[in-house]
Each structure stands twice: as structure tokens, then as C-alpha cells.
# Entry
Amino acid sequence: MNQTASKTTDRNLLQIFLFAGTLFTSAALMFVLQPMFGKILLPLLGGSPAVWNTCMVFYQTVLFLGYLYAHYLSTRLSHHRQILVHLGVILISFLALPVGLPQTVSPPTESNPTFWLLGVLSLSIGLPFFVVSTTAPLIQKWFANIGHHTSSDPYYLYAASNSGSLIALLSYPFLIEPNIGLSGQKSDWTVGFVMLCILIGGCAFALWKAQQAKEEFDESSSKDDELSIFTKLHWLALAFVPSSLLLGLTTFISTDIASVPLLWIIPLTLYLLTFVIVFSKWHDKVHGWMVKAQPIVLLPFLAYSFINPAVLPYWVDLGIHLTAFFLAVMVCHGELARLRPNTRHLTTYYLIMSFAGMLGGMFNTFVAPFIFNAVYEYPLMIIAALLLRPGLNASFNGGNKAWLKQLILPAFLIIVGLVVFFSVDDLPQYLDTIGVGLILLAGLTYAFRSQPITLALMTGILIFFTFGLHSMLSNTLYQERTFFGVLSVRESMLTNEQGQPEKYREFYHGTTKHGAQRLAADVSRMPLTYFSRQGPIGQLFAEYEKVNTNWEIGIIGLGAGTLACYTKPEQSWAFYELDPLVVDIASNPKYFTYISQCNPKIKMVVGDARLSLEKEPDHKFDLYIVDAFSSDSIPTHLLTQEAIKLYFEKIKPDGILALHITNRHLALKKVLSNHAENLHLASLIQEFKPQKDIPLVVATDWIVMAKKPETLDLLKQSQLGSWQKLPLYFDIKPWTDDFTNIVTIWK
# Structure
């Protein structure tokens, strides 16, 4: 790294604390604002992909523009003019305070809300978010010119910035959200932003004073070589791959390993931690260790997480993925820190990093879901990270076309793999042998740790050969990917009541099952899983058999369409489903026949259920069923006090609200018990467990509510199941559109 020697001996620690504190505060405010404003928007616009895609584009674009502004300001204007211009921008940003939606704002009801949302985001938080986004590069650039003895290498301050991001990330779900409502969060964020502006003013004063005390050093006269296009592209790649890898791993573990709420926090925490480490004083020693450890961890990573993932418990598998991810990002970010330029190019460096991060996010958010039907961007970025290991340049600059020699072994393995795939007729018979061979090859990769091309290509061949093998041997009939995740239909075998093998199909969203159907003609209309006739919802329909002939029924959540087989000819049913692909799969008799056999004319309403329900007339439904909480990412806006009030506005005075609350991780009954108490609703709960082993009938939890206690008398007195009064819980704060927190209901 070529650095200009320090020209002063100023060792004032207060200056370090001032500039580091400013960067810390700025990053913390950014990481609090994004989830906070998402919660503000959720009740207005629901959880449609258009909303979150638009927010993602807005945040990434403004962040990039902030870095571009900092680059332009610091390279085109004198220090005094930089200060004046930036203070002017800060003063203008006060017009948007306090942050929040204008009181009179309302989304369009008929047209696409994208442009409306961009406008609202720009007016509500655009200016403050822009100011926050400029801080990291601009404040470090200012520090480089205040004459401190560390000014020649101010990059260690980036560790303070990422520490702020890390602490805010962990504080929001575990400290801020459980204790402060949205209105309080908005007020506190505004106070924090004002404090940040004061700190920026302090940094500006330090720079102004330093420039008055000495002749300004003209950086443009530096003799440093100009940045080559290769250097810029190298920085771009070193920042792009970890950004994409972060999102890819987050999607992969929630899709293929475990659906656990807040699991996404772990990869993001590790990602931010890498920045803290690589820009710290320990970087030089740590980077060497990370480079050596990466190929060592690669062997168990390939062997257990891809070749034979069923061997280990999911939490061990998750730990291996996280370790491999951390090492890959540490190596990339370590190289990025090692190659940091002279402060003359500081803002260019951060601008490229910002642009690469934006590209990584956009690739995973907008490109990958449309070109891949599974999370293939994750292994692709693992391979790319291996290519970026130290030594790649030497492969191309070593003469005698050294990089071509590194292609020989991968090319040989590709030929062998193709021969195995197309010449062996009964692959399952040789599965153990193939598995042992793949594991041996995974071990062999370590021998090529100093040859990035061979190491990366061998790893890629192993991973994608394994993917192909698993796909060929799997029972997946259909798999597709949308913004909401990976949907799949799988076919399996069970032993029926007569002891005979029988085919059945299951509908999965990631690792969460959303329905199943037996294929034999005599049982194909039988509701299964959470919706069995023996279970709570089956008991409800059975107990009200004589009075529900003309019921109007609404249901949030379609799944495989299982509930459709409870319909009667005189009833009117409507399903509210957010993901249109779920409607396509459930309605296609090639996969499931509940709808085609039981009620092919059933009404489907695609879109956010709460927004769709607001358009329905009051007192329309006799029964309203909410089935949207079984996955890891529950739509909290469907479980707030305002949502419960909305349901009862649309339900008849003697109608029933039924909520499916089966969830492996969250005690949702606590939230609903609180609502029932505060809204004076009658409520019953049944935590159902099958009395005998019935195929595909599972344990499930349901709650029913009504305005009048007598409405639920049939269930309360039922001999079919054990309905109990919903107990009271005093350790939970009411969930509203202003306050929700899943940490307090963790099982």
C-alpha cells in the first residue's frame, strides 16, 4: 500500500473520538431507520414485493448518491467550500424532520404504488438518509486533512462506522423494538439525527481550523500514480462478491436449512464484523490466518453441507455454512483493506465499494429470482470468493500462461463427471461410491490452496455435480422461485391404514410445509396436516354443520387449497393470497386437486390480505380464517390490534374469527390473548395432538374468537375436541401498528 508520510505530529485523541463518534452515530442511525420505516409502511401497503423491492432500490440508490456526492465534493471543492456546501445540505435536511409519514398521505387504491412510494420515501426520509449516507467517506476524507498523526491512513475509522452498524443491527430487534413504539422511535431518531449534525459540525470546525493553521496541501499535485482500470475492477469484485454472498446465504439457510425468525441477523452481523476487523490495527496478522483457514474449512463445508447434508443436525450444518461464509468474506474484505489507496483516492475507493454493494443487492434481489429456480447465486459467489484469493494476479502474470495449467484438472473432472452422468444407468446403486469419491476430491482441493483458479473451479464442479445428482435422485415434481422464496411440490410415499404403500404430495415454501394431499381416489378429498377433520378446524365445521349452509367464508392463506374441501354448494368462499404462484400451484390439478375436485369456482383474491379486506363491505363474513403464521417470517401487520378490529368489522355480529397459530418458534397465543382481553372478545384455544397415528394428520394449534360468548358455545361444549378458554398473559405489551416485537413471544 502506497501511503503519503504524515507531515504533522498532532496526537490529539479528542479528534479521533470526535470523528469516530460521528461515523459511529451515522451508521447506527442508518441501520435503525431502514427497519423502522419498513414497519411504518407495512400497514399502509402490506407485504407485496413491489413495496420491498422499491424500498431496496431507494435505500441503495440514495446510499450510492451519497457516496458520489462525497466524492464530488472532496475532489472538486476546497475544504472551506466543502464545509459550507455540506452544512447547507444539512440545514435543508431539517425540513424533513421529524421523520415519518405525512398525516394526510394515502396510497393509491387502483394504480401501481411504486412512484407514489418513491415520492413518499423521498419526502419523508430522503434528505436525512442522504446526509447520513454521505458521512462515512466525507468524514474520513476530512480526517485525512486535519493534520493528525494518523491522517495518512484514516481507514481504521471505517471500523467505528461498522461498529455502529453492528450495534444498531443487534439493538433494534432486541432492545429498541421491544421497548419503544414507532412514534417514540421516530422522535428518538430525530434527536439522534440532530446530534449527528452537531458532530458533523464539530468535524467541520476541526477541518476549518486545521486548514487555517497551515498551508493547504494540494493533493492534486501528488505524484501518486493514477488508479488503473484493473485496480478499480478488482475493488469492485472484492466488494460485490461478499455483498451478494451475504444475501445468498441468508436466503439459502432460510430456504434449505431452517426457518427461524431473526436468523438473517447472524450472517449480517458476521458481515459487518469483518469490516470492523479488517480495518482495525490487527488486520495484517488476521488476514494471513483467514487466508490459511479458508481452504481448511472448505473440506467439511463441501463434504457435509453439499455432498451429504443429511448426516449432521441442522444447527451444525448452519454453523459450517456460517464459518465458511465468514472466512470467505474475511478474505475478500481483507484483500480490499490491504489494497486501500492513498487518501487522495479515498472517496473513489468508497464510491466503488458502495457501487459494488448496490450491484450485489440488486443482483440477488432482482436478477437471481428470475434466472434461477433455487438459490444458485449462493454457491456461485462461494466460487467467486475463492477466485479472489491472493495469488490470482500471479496466475496471470507468471508467464508461460500459468493460468491455463490450472484448468487441466478441472477440465478432466468435468469430463469424468459427464461420463458418470450419461453412461451409468443405475446411479443410486453406486451412490455410496460416488459420495466417497466426491469427499476425497473435496479433500484434494486443499492441495491447490495457492492456485485460486484450480481451487475455485474444483469447488464449483463438486458443488454443481452434487446439485445435479441430488436433483436427479430427488422426488421434487416442481420447483420455482419468487420474491417470497422457493416453492416446491414433492412426491413421497406413506404406509396407509391397510399397511400398503401409497403416494402423496407435499407443498413447501422453503422448509415450511403448507399442505399435503394423498393421491388415491378414495382419500384425495380428505383434508390433511393442519386442516384435518380430526383437528380444530375440522371440529369447527362439524359442530356448525347444521347452521353453516349459507355461510360466507373468507380465508387468508391458500397453501395447497386443502380447506376448499370443506365447502358446501350454497356457501360462498374467497381465498386471500399474497403470492400469485401459490394460486397457480394450488389450482393446477397436475399437482393438487383439492380445488378442482371440491370447488373449482372458488374466488381467489391476490394481494396483501389486509389491504384487500379493507375493500370488502362491513359485516360480510360468517367465518373468517387467518392462516398466515406458520413460517419464520410472520406478517405482523395481520396480527396487530388494528388488524383484529378490521376482521371483526368485516365479520357479522354473530360471526367467528379462526386463527391458525401453529408455529415452531413463536407463542402467538400470547398476542391474541392480549387482544381478546383488551377488545372484550370471547376466545377459545385448542392445542391439538392426534390421539392415534393417522397418516399426515399433525399436531396443530387454533384459536377462535367472537364478539358474543354464546357464538362459541357449540365449540365450548364440543365432544370432538378439547377447547379451552384462552389463558391470560401479563408479560406482553399489546401489539399495534405502532408496536410489534417477536422477541417477547419466543418459545
Remarks:
- The CA atoms of residues 417 and 465 lie 7 Å apart.
- The first helix runs from residue 13 to 45.
- The chain has a mean pLDDT of 85.
- The longest strand covers residues 485-495.
